[in-house]
Amino acid sequence: MQMAAFRQSGQVTSNPAPTVTAISPATGTAAGGTAVTVTGTGFLAGATVSIGGAAATGVTVSSSTSIKATTAAHATGAVNVVVTNSDTQSGTLTQGFTYTAVPNPAPTVAAISPTSGTNAGGTAVTITGTGFLTGATVSLGGAAATGVTVASSTSITATAPSHAAGTVNVVVTNADGQKGTLANGYTYVATNPAPTAVSIAPNSGPTAGGTSVTITGTGFLSGATVTLGGTGATGVTLASSTSITAITPAHAAGAVNVVVTNTDGQKGALANGYTYSSTPSNLGLGVMGGDSSSATVTAGQTASYTLSIGGDGMGGTASLSCSGAPTAANCSVPASQPFNSTTPATFNVTVTTTARTAGALVVPGSVGSTFALAGFAPLAWLSVFAMLGIVVLPGVGASKEQSGRRYLRLLPLTLVFFLVSCGGGAGSSSTASPQPAPSSSGTPAGNYTLSVMATSGATTQTTTLTLIVK
């Protein structure tokens, strides 16, 4: 007997091709490694999965409608998802999965320097860490820092904002929203208020610098520094919490900011407060307009002059001196004189002379004589009698002609006695109290040139005056 097998017409001997209806999640990074679930129909044991042509790994057929797999690395963009059964039939989900760019890692904040600053803010800080991106922001205690500059992926500079005193977190936030935090990394310290710079006098000077200036304001502390146009001033002296004196540095011509910086780092600025001028300036020293540079006095009188200083583009405080005064005369000027660049200031110069006196005749041997010998006072009176004899005796018993010749011969001797009686000669002092030898004193007559010199910073100017003494 023979057996026969019958088959219904149109019957198929293989499974239908699989279909892919979805993948979850539908996106993942280009680095791969995203775990996905593919759903559809007709999945057979041993099926494979490819995403964008790259074979997925870890493929597990959970059922005929579900497969689990892990994405492989791939370039960014939307790609097809393909399931291929062991019988080589496949199903495709067109552009069902999208590869995205690999995100940067979250930033880390390792340190901040300095670790503290005033509660007024304004402290320049440097933050170090990793993963800093261009456009990152910085906050301290929730307050946004200013002047944030991403120097590199590991360094950021910024200026601390104002904040209440205390310890706060330092947070760096990248442009992709990821953050790094340094817990309690910065401490705000309560301190003096920031200084203010209100004015500067004078407010202009030469480009060479050297102008003495006074800055007024508030909150100046000992050790404060001053800059003009970013260049440090010299000779900075704190007169009080509201006043500082300094010497301007050299600088190019133009208006510049005047900045006072306290030792706590806080600053006060006077915008365009000082102007450097390229026009040569001087002290403006000279005789007051309409006044005379010459004075005539009699010995014993005082000559007076009025001088002016300033108003010639330079200001400050000048030290003054006077030279060239004659013998027994004194020239007086103020030790210093403030002046400004626009309005001249005046000061007086006085020259006090001394009256001249003549010497007195002294009889030898009298009190105050320097001629008495060894206390022999009678010698002085003997000199007097000898002079009388010289005058009287030649005329006794002689004719007028004879007397005249005798007088002529005795005249030199008479002069000698006269000079001796006026204090001439030498010898030891008498027992009476000695007196100074007579002499002529006072300011001599003549024409004299006086020099008045003013010095301010590196600038010196001299003017001359004429003194006539009669």
Can you give me a brief rundown of this structure?
This protein is mainly beta and 470 residues long. The protein has helices at residues 378-392, 400-421, and strands spanning 19-24, 27-29, 35-41, 48-51, 54-55, 57-63, 66-70, 77-84, 90-100, 108-113, 116-118, 124-130, 137-140, 143-144, 146-152, 155-159, 166-173, 179-189, 196-201, 204-206, 212-218, 225-228, 231-232, 234-240, 243-247, 254-261, 267-277, 286-287, 294-297, 302-309, 316-323, 330-332, 336-339, 345-352, 446-456, 459-469.
Model description:
With 470 residues, this protein is mainly β. Helix 1 (378-392) packs antiparallel against helix 2 (400-421). The protein is 8% helix and 46% strand. The longest helix is centred in the C-terminal third of the chain and has 22 residues, at 400-421. It contains two helices and 36 strands. A hairpin with a 2-residue loop joins strand 35 (446-456) and strand 36. The radius of gyration is 55 Å and the shape is rod-shaped. The protein has four domains: 19-100, Sandwich (Immunoglobulin-like), CATH 2.60.40.10; 108-189, Immunoglobulins (Immunoglobulin-like); 197-277, Immunoglobulins (Immunoglobulin-like, Sandwich); 286-354 and 447-469, Immunoglobulin-like (Sandwich), CATH 2.60.40.2310. It has a five-stranded mixed beta sheet with strand order 2-9-8-4-5, with no helix packed on it. Mean pLDDT is 85; it is low at 360-377 and 422-439. It has helices spanning 378-392, 400-421, and strands at 19-24, 27-29, 35-41, 48-51, 54-55, 57-63, 66-70, 77-84, 90-100, 108-113, 116-118, 124-130, 137-140, 143-144, 146-152, 155-159, 166-173, 179-189, 196-201, 204-206, 212-218, 225-228, 231-232, 234-240, 243-247, 254-261, 267-277, 286-287, 294-297, 302-309, 316-323, 330-332, 336-339, 345-352, 446-456, 459-469.
